[in-house]
Amino acid sequence: MRGVAALALAGLLAAAAPAQAAWRLLDFPKADVSLRAVAVAGPNAFQVSGSKGTYAVTADAGRTWRQVVVPGGEALDFRGLAAPGPGAAILTSAGDGPAGQARIYRTGDGGATWSLAFETKLPGAFLDGVAFWDRDHGLVFGDPIDGRWFLLGTSDGGRSWQRVEPKQPPLLPGEAAFAASNSALFLGPKAQAWIVSGGAPQGRAFHSADGGKTWGVAETPIAGGPTGGVFGGLALNGGRAVIVGGDHKNELRAAPNIALADGKGWTLAAQAAPAGLLEGVGRLDAHTLLAVGPRGTSLSRDDGKTWRQVDSEAFHAIACDQGTCVAAGAKGRVGLWVR
């Protein structure tokens, strides 16, 4: 973008956010990878994962990184990452089951040793993401097989995984999830869980209130299509949730990309910035949310009701914990939100 249009956007972004609030880009050691998942364990400790078997950790807010090689996973695309407890990490790889790429790895000692916790060569198996309620209980989900989501559950911190056969409504023709930001599956308190989808005419949101045993589904106001729909979300207080989306083949698609659920249905959030693809959302503090995507970051200061774009930094994934937010994206791009 050049000339008058670029100046206009720069003015809009400058007015949209305080000067001191911005992403500080970190020096990541691998510039040839696409990072798709983030986990934050403290103000200075976080982890990222992605293509080419990438898994890296930092304990000093990104000043130095320790790159960890997962034996047997050197060529995998680790699009799912969770850190359920001290020293523990769970990695899920995206790829075809028949090719042996649908795997879950676990470490309990900070990456010194790894175990292959799950592997399947089931036709159609493709793992999209992982999330934990606490250090013991979590879910992994994958694209549909026989018209139903492929679900795995653990109750021992990811050491073992069992197939979950829940009651769930059938998926529509072409409907699936986007393994874009490790947030198409997201969890809330009291056994709440959501899975969001694309590929159908409208993005949809599946919801469980019993830890994934039974699911309902609702259509959202985020448009779908062959390459569009809902990409990720975040559980809010009181059983509410926020979701984001768009179209990964048309990142500038002028369509609403943020919606809220209040227990009665999904409604569009108010936006004061051009629509475009958003892939993940995180909570900075009690009322402040950040949503990231290839076009930049949008910010809400009222728990998701209204949003405005605050910069043009491109990221795929975001994770926040107790005021620390970290985002990651293509070409080894990692940012730390600084207020």
Structural summary, described in words:
There is one protein chain. The protein is mainly beta. It has one domain (3-338): YVTN repeat-like/Quinoprotein amine dehydrogenase (Methylamine Dehydrogenase, Chain H, 7 Propeller), CATH 2.130.10.10. The chain is 4% helix and 46% strand. The strands form seven sheets. A five-stranded mixed β-sheet has the order 22-26-25-24-23. Strands 1-29-28-27 form a four-stranded antiparallel β-sheet, with no helix packed on it. It is globular and about 45 Å long. It starts with a helix and ends with a strand.
CATH architecture: 7 Propeller
**How far is the N terminus from the C terminus?**
27 Å
CATH homologous superfamily classification: YVTN repeat-like/Quinoprotein amine dehydrogenase
For the CA atoms, what is the radius of gyration? 19 Å
Give the low-pLDDT segments.
1-19
Overall structural class, as computed from helix and strand content, comes to mainly beta
Oligomer: single chain
Shape: globular
Instruction: Give a quick account of the main beta sheet: strands, pairing sense, barrel closure.
Output: 5 strands, mixed
CATH topology name: Methylamine Dehydrogenase, Chain H
Mean pLDDT: 92
Number of DSSP strands?
29
| Tally of separate helices | 1
CATH class: Mainly Beta
Could you give the order of strands across the largest sheet? Answer: 22-26-25-24-23
